[in-house]
Amino acid sequence: MKIGEFSRGGRGRGNEAVKAVDHDMHPDAVLAPAGILEVVSGQLTIVFGTSRDTADFVADALEHWCSERKAVHPGIRRLQIDLDNGPEIASSRTQFLKRLVEFAQREHLEIELVYYPPYHSKYNPIERCWGILENHWNGTLLTTICTALAWAATMTWRCLRPFVHLLEKTYERGVTLTKTALQQYAPHIQRSDTLPKWSVTIHPH
Fold first, then answer.
1. Domain count along the chain
2. pTM (2 decimals)?
3. Distance from C-alpha of 183 to C-alpha of 87, rounded to nearest angstrom
């Protein structure tokens, strides 16, 4: 998401038209969003990164969510996480699996990663959250990071406002593990017999 005086194709709510740039887009900053939706309660957490969308960014966003919300869910020992099949969080992404194993061990959680098949994102509730956010701020100039965060914090999903967090950290693309390095994590990773690509369970012990 580009930060700057850029048109988002929305409608202004003031008496005068909002002047925006629709070409030569050289952003002042770029934000990468990660959304975590607690499906039962409808509570949404949005983590914006100032670097790029990587396996480590998503893992850090998940760890931040856990640190902020585990007191609300005491006694939880198992998480089912529904994900799209993006390249940075695919079940074949070794760095993502490594980070999730470490997270499961640290929090003593069993984690099942359940992936939506290609072209089925419309069934993923988080995609509808992004649509609401886009409609919410599309008539606004997101000229600063603070403006983007403030607008994100005022959207609603199921009458609840999201928790919004900024993660200022630099992430590198293409971080992978060698087969030798992955061996220590492999015993914690169990793939479904029938859907090994789409259902992966991570055991802490």
1. 1
2. 0.91
3. 21
